[in-house]
Amino acid sequence: MNTTWAPVAPPLPAPLPASPPRQTARPVPRWAELVAHAIPLVGLPVCIWRLPFAFGFTMGSTQEDAPWGWWMIPYVFGLSILSEAFALLSFGLVRSWGEVVPAWVPRLGGRRISPWVAVVPATIGGLIMTALLVDWVLSVTLGLGGGFPYEDGWRQLAMTMSGLLNLWGPLVLILTYGYWRRRRGEPTA
User: Which helix (H) or strand (E) holds 100?
Assistant: First the structure.
């Protein structure tokens, strides 16, 4: 007689029926879908890169360090989370929630969004991030603005991390142009 006891897991609940994906009014080109997925990915390395700074690790920086304080932890983590949250907003340029307010939003749910509500802030953000790219290129190629204050080895890593982040601006501008082309000619009301 077998006297070993084995716990039995309760049966899993039935899966919820899959809701059909909400489609945009006009089809999203494959390249736009890929760009929207790339934007959070180009920001992720620098978000991870800055995490050790929260705990006082300088990552090879040769700048005179400010004294470390407890506030560095929420600041750095908050900045990383906020950066990725803004990067994820780029999906609004290729999803239905960038064209129609989701139904769960009180009073506004179901209303069409004017294309300009997305195009204007995305263009401004893309231009600001592209200006940072220009500053980064001038710093790297011409040594303007002090360059990268890191020890050898760390400098290349820092340039790679910040270089990837600097692709964010042009990618947002490209995606915004695709959104505008797809939505132009639609009624604004």
Answer: none
Q: Which of 103, 83, 100, 80 is nearest to 92 (CA)?
A: 100
Reduce the DSSP state of residue 150 to 3 states and report it.
Answer: strand
- The strand pairing partners of 150, in sequence order, are 61
- What is the spatial distance between Cα 115 and Cα 50, in angstroms, rounded to a whole number? 35
Are 173 and 127 in contact, with CB atoms under 8 Å apart? yes
Give the pTM. 0.78
Give the three-class secondary structure for 61. strand
Tens of pLDDT, residue by residue over 28-66, are 999 999 999 999 999 999 899 888 888 888 777 777 766
Q: At what angle do helices 72-88 and 30-50 cross, to 10 degrees?
A: 180
Look at residues 128, 30, 125 and name the one whose alpha carbon lies nearest to residue 86: 125
| 132-167 pLDDT, tens digit each | 888 888 877 777 666 667 777 787 888 888 888 889
